[in-house]
Structure formats: C-alpha cells, structure tokens
Specification:
- With about 375 residues, this protein is an alpha+beta fold.
- It folds into 3 domains: about 5-80 and about 360-370, no CATH class; about 85-90 and about 165-350, Fumarylacetoacetate hydrolase, domain 2 (Alpha-Beta Complex); about 95-160, no CATH class.
- The protein is built from 11 helices and 19 strands.
- It has helices spanning about 5-10, 50-55, 95-105, 115-130, 135-145, 155-160, 220-225, 230, 255, 285-295, 360-370; strands spanning about 5, 20-25, 30-35, 40, 65-70, 75-80, 85-90, 165-170, 180-185, 190, 195-200, 205-215, 215, 240-245, 260-265, 270-280, 305, 330-335, 340-350.
- Strands 1, 2, 3, 4, 5, 6, 7, 8, 11, 12, 14 and 17 form a 12-stranded mixed beta sheet that branches. It has a 5-stranded mixed beta sheet with strand order 9-19-18-15-16, with no helix packed on it.
- Helix 3 (about 95-105) runs antiparallel to helix 4 and helix 3 packs antiparallel against helix 6.
- The two termini are about 30 Å apart.
- Residues about 1-5 and about 375-380 have low confidence and may be disordered.
- This is Fumarylacetoacetate hydrolase.
Length: about 375
C-alpha cells in the first residue's frame, strides 16, 4: 500500500525550510526518514520505526544516511506512521454535528436527508455554532433541545463535556499518498473526511501534523451508531500523508489551529466537488483533544489523532436532494499550504490492495536487516 511520490505534486511549497518525518519503501523494506533542508536522511539505523524516531530527545539527522535532495529521490512514499495507534475525534465542528444528527434521523437513507436538514438547521443551526462545549450555555441548549424532542447522541459529544474519541484503524493498516482508498462495496452513501492529524509520541507530546482522510460510510453509521466500526474501519479506509511536518520555530500548533483545509473530488463522469474546512471553527482545541485521548489511556508507541472536519457533503451528485456519495474512480485531493497535498483514488475495499504487512511482518523484516538492537542510540531517550 504505497504511492510513488513527486515532491512538486504533494509537498508544501516551503518543504526545503521545514523539518519532516515519514517512511519510504527501500529495497530492504520500510525505512523512516527525516527531511531537513530539503535533504532526506534514512534514519533506520538510528530508529527503525517512525514511532521510535519521534521519541528521540533531539529530532536531528545525526546518525542518518543522506539519500540526497528529496525531489531527486526515486522512491515509494508510505503512510508516515507505523506502530502508532490511529485514533480519531468525531463531531468536533458544528456543521458536522448537524450532519450526524441528520444521518441518525434519516436512518441512513440519503433520500430523506434534505427535509430533515432544513428542519434541524432552522431550529438549532445558529445556537450550536456559538456554544462552547461543556459550558453553562451548552447545558441550557441541551435542555431546550430535549424539550423540543431534538436531542441526539451526536449533539451530546458536540456540545457536552466529553469529546468523541475512537480507534479508526489498526496499526500499520493506513495507506499513503497516491494509494487507493477503500469504501465498502455494500455502501450507497459515503464520503471523504478531510482532516488534519496530530502525531503524538509515547510521552504524550504532540510533535507534528499531517493530512488524513477519515473515509466514512454515512449509511452504516446513520442506521446505528453501533455500526461505527463498520462505517470507519475497512481495508484501505484511512489515508495519511504525505509526510509529518514536525513542530519547530517555523511551524507550531497555532498553524494547525488556523489552517484552511481544501478538498476536491473529481469523478470519472466529470463531476467535481470543492470544499473547505476552516480549523478556526473547531469547537474543541486540538491539544484538548489530545488531553482527552490520554486521560485514562497510555500509548507506548504514540498515536495519530484525526481532529475532525467541517466538511459536510451536501452538494447533489446524481439526483436532486440526494447529496453526495462516492463513485469508484473518484480522485480525492486534500491540501493545506503548510502540510502539502494528500491524493488518493477511490475503489471498493474488496478491490483495494489487501493489507498483509502487519506487526509480525515488520518485526521479521527489521530483525532480518539487523535493526532490532538494544544498543540503538537514544531510541527511547
């Protein structure tokens, strides 16, 4: 599950100025890289996994093997995480909260969505956009919505004290830029979810960010929230990339807070959809979402955390009032200036390349390359 990468297509314009981490596929197997000053360094002899690399006390290229200028390297770019758990936060934007309520009330039927959307927007659209989750105002709004018969489990996580945090994808199952992404073959109402993803090391430190597509099946989750696992976790249903931009003096979590994430979908029939997710409209601060993820759990290999999306796919594709759903062959491009572009083509999960390279295969590969040594420098320092 890899994609042949071109810097000019996928990386941010200032890629020579930032510090990036990621993974490439070499002849020996997957290797973590650092990119500094536009030069890529194979860090596998220092830290054989990205998880271990991001735990180092100093994210420098010391001990790495210079591979050359990144735009001159002929390599396959893998998803930039490996042993990290992949977590996701849902309903962190007001618009996405309303869309989840619509799915729930439509019971997964796209034909019923437009009428429900109009009624709910008229009643709570402006109120939910201004309320702070967990505040006294949110408690008052909840009481009013219960009285009107409009309360929902999705509104609970949108304006209540507790964020929705779930496990999106098994370790090593994510795909990278250029790879096919999968939707279930039996889904008839689905969409991409363009998001920024924070990458957190084993110490609970947010060390950088990348782009992600939290592919979603609206019909499955709409029929029952208990189908979230089937709606979210399928073969090739999670893409990340192109690289992790590491936080430094030139790129901080404030850049995440103010980012504008653009989405384009180009269909095989000539259909085009454009959308934008403005991170300054998120209801919960990104670092608060990290805190809630860590509150009663440990992640010894770190984790990647999808922050949620403002994007609500309501533009009609085939029939008036039915909204958007994917077709096989769609090209999805997610971009923001400081992180670059994540581009994937849509297929069914059955048609996507099977996921066969798991933790056992990775450990076997690293052991065969002599990379699993207790004496590796600063792997856990």
């Amino acid at each position: 599950m890899s994609g042949h990468f071109s810097v000019t297509d996928y990386l941010p314009a200032d890629w020579r100025d930032g510090l990036f981490a990621g993974r490439i596929l070499t002849r020996e197997g997957p290797s973590p890289i650092l990119v500094s000053g536009g030069i890529a360094y194979d860090m596998s002899r220092v830290a054989p996994t990205v998880s271990q690399l991001l735990d180092r006390s100093s994210l420098s290229t010391d001990g790495g093997k210079a591979l050359g200028a990144l735009d001159e390297i002929d390599a396959d770019l893998l998803s930039p995480v490996d042993l990290q758990c992949v977590k996701a936060c849902g309903v962190t934007f007001a618009v996405s909260a309303l869309e989840r309520v619509i799915e729930e009330r439509a019971r997964g039927d796209a034909n019923a969505a437009q009428d429900i959307r109009s009624r709910i927007e008229e009643r709570v659209g402006s109120s939910i956009r201004s309320v702070v989750p967990g505040s006294p105002e949110s408690v008052a709004l909840k009481a009013a919505l219960i009285e009107d018969g409009l309360w929902s489990q999705y509104l609970e996580v949108a304006i209540g004290p507790d964020a929705e945090v779930f496990t999106k994808s098994p370790v090593l199952s994510t795909v990278g830029v250029g790879a096919d992404i999968g939707i279930r073959s039996d889904s008839t109402w689905n969409n991409p979810e363009p998001e920024i993803v924070l990458v957190v090391n084993s110490k609970g430190e947010a060390v950088g960010a990348t782009l992600g597509n939290d592919v979603n099946l609206r019909d499955f989750e709409g029929r029952s929230a208990l189908l979230l696992g089937k709606a979210k976790d399928n073969n090739a249903s999670c893409s990340l990339g192109p690289l992790i931009r590491l936080f430094d003096d030139g790129f901080t979590v404030d850049d995440v807070r103010s980012a504008e994430v653009d989405l384009t979908i180009d269909g095989p029939e000539g259909y085009r959809l454009e959308g934008r997710s403005s991170m300054n409209q998120i209801s919960r601060d990104p670092l608060d979402l990290v805190r809630q993820t860590l509150s009663e759990h440990q992640y010894p290999d770190g984790f990647a955390l999808f922050l949620g999306t403002l994007f609500a796919p309501v533009q009609d594709r085939d029939e008036p009032g039915r909204g958007f759903t994917h077709k096989v062959g769609d090209t999805v491009a997610i971009s923001t200036p400081r992180l670059g572009r994540l581009v994937n083509r849509v297929v069914t999960s059955k048609e996507a390349t099977p996921w066969t390279f798991g933790v056992s295969a990775l450990m076997t590969n690293l052991a065969g390359r002599g990379l699993l040594s207790a004496k590796q420098e600063e792997v856990t320092a």
